[in-house]
Design brief:
Elements (H helix, E strand, L loop, with lengths): L2 H8 L13 H4 L13 H7 L8 E7 L1 H13 L3 E4 L7 H4 L16 E2 L4 H15 L9 E6 L13 E2 L13 H6 L4 E6 L7 H12 L3 E6 L7 E2 L13 H6 L21
Parallel strand pairs: 1-4, 1-6, 2-4, 3-5, 6-7
Antiparallel strand pairs: 7-8
Helix pairs in contact: 1-6, 3-4, 4-6
C-alpha cells in the first residue's frame, strides 16, 4: 500500500474520529510489502480486559510499536484506533531528499532522538490487518501516542536529528464533544500506574474538568484500572502554554520539532 492508502485505513472517511488522526508519520513512511502479520499476542492479552462500551474512550501512551499493537488489538474488540502521532522519523528513514536536507550530508550511522522504526512498521503491517476488521463509524476511540516522544534521558547532541514532539489539547476532541457522543469515561493505558506525562496532563485535566471520569491502567502493574486524579501541570490553560512547551525544541524545515540541534537545514 502507498502511504496515502495506509493513512486512509487508519483514518477512514466514515469514522467520526478520523479528523484527529495526525498524518505526519504517514506522509514520510515507506511501506515494504510483507506477508508477516504483526505479533499481537501480548497486546491481545491486555486488550481482552477492556470491553467496548459507548461510554468509554481509551488513551494508549506506550512506546511506539507497543502502542500501535495495542491499538490493533483493541480494534479487534470493536474500538476505533486513532494514531495521534505528530513525529517525523527523520529524512534517512523517510527517504526525503531535495528539501533542504540532502542524504549525502547525514551523519553515519544516522541517529535520531526518537527511534520510530517499530512504530512505522506497526502502522504499515497493521494497515492490512486493520482493513479487514469491521468497526462501526461511531465506535469508541482509542487515541494512540508514543510514550518515547520526548526522548527523556537522552542527550541530544550535534550528531542527533531532533525529532522529539509533544501532544497538545488541540490534537484531541474537547470534553464537550466527547460528552455529546456519550463518552463519560476515559482510561489511560501506560506502562506504570501513575500520573500522565506532563504534555498529556494538559489534555486529560481539561477532560476531567469537563466532566469525564478518568482511570489509569498499568501494563506492568496488572489488576483493574484505578481512578486517576490528574495533577495540574505547569502553565495549565495559559494562553502561551503551547509556546512555552515547545521552547527549546528545534523547529524543523518540515514542521514540528524535526531538525538538527545545530542546524544544517532548520527553520
Amino acid at each position: 500500500m502507498t502511504p496515502e492508502e495506509v493513512y486512509q485505513v487508519w483514518a477512514p472517511a466514515e469514522s467520526i474520529w478520523s479528523p484527529w488522526a495526525i498524518a505526519v508519520p504517514f506522509a514520510q513512511m515507506v511501506c515494504v510489502d510483507s506477508a508477516t502479520p504483526p505479533d499481537l499476542s501480548e497486546a491481545m492479552r491486555i486488550a481482552a480486559q477492556f470491553d467496548r462500551s459507548s461510554e468509554l474512550a481509551i488513551v494508549v501512551d506506550l512506546p511506539g510499536g507497543e502502542a500501535i499493537g495495542l491499538g490493533l488489538a483493541l480494534g479487534q474488540r470493536g474500538f476505533r484506533p486513532v494514531p495521534v502521532i505528530d513525529g517525523s522519523p527523520g529524512p534517512a528513514v523517510s527517504g526525503l531528499t531535495g528539501t533542504g536536507m540532502d542524504q549525502g550530508t547525514l551523519a553515519a550511522p544516522f541517529r535520531v532522538a526518537v527511534d520510530m522504526k517499530e512504530l512505522l512498521r506497526g502502522l504499515c503491517l497493521g494497515a492490512s490487518w486493520l482493513r479487514d476488521l469491521t468497526i462501526e463509524p461511531d465506535a469508541s476511540p482509542v487515541f494512540l501516542l508514543d510514550a518515547t516522544r520526548l526522548a527523556e534521558g537522552r542527550s541530544i547532541g550535534r550528531e542527533v536529528f531532533d525529532n522529539r514532539w509533544k501532544t497538545f489539547p488541540q490534537d484531541y476532541p474537547s470534553a464537550r464533544f466527547l460528552l455529546e457522543r456519550g463518552i463519560r469515561r476515559v482510561i489511560l493505558i501506560k506502562e506504570q500506574v501513575g500520573q500522565p506525562q506532563e504534555d498529556l496532563a494538559h489534555v486529560l485535566l481539561r477532560w476531567q474538568e469537563g466532566g469525564i471520569r478518568l482511570e489509569v491502567y498499568g501494563t506492568r502493574n496488572g489488576g483493574r484500572p484505578r481512578d486517576l486524579a490528574v495533577s495540574k501541570p505547569a502553565h495549565f490553560r495559559a494562553l502561551w502554554q503551547r509556546a512555552l512547551a515547545i521552547f527549546g525544541l528545534q523547529r524543523g524545515a518540515y514542521g514540528g520539532f524535526r531538525n538538527w540541534p545545530h542546524g544544517t537545514g532548520g527553520g
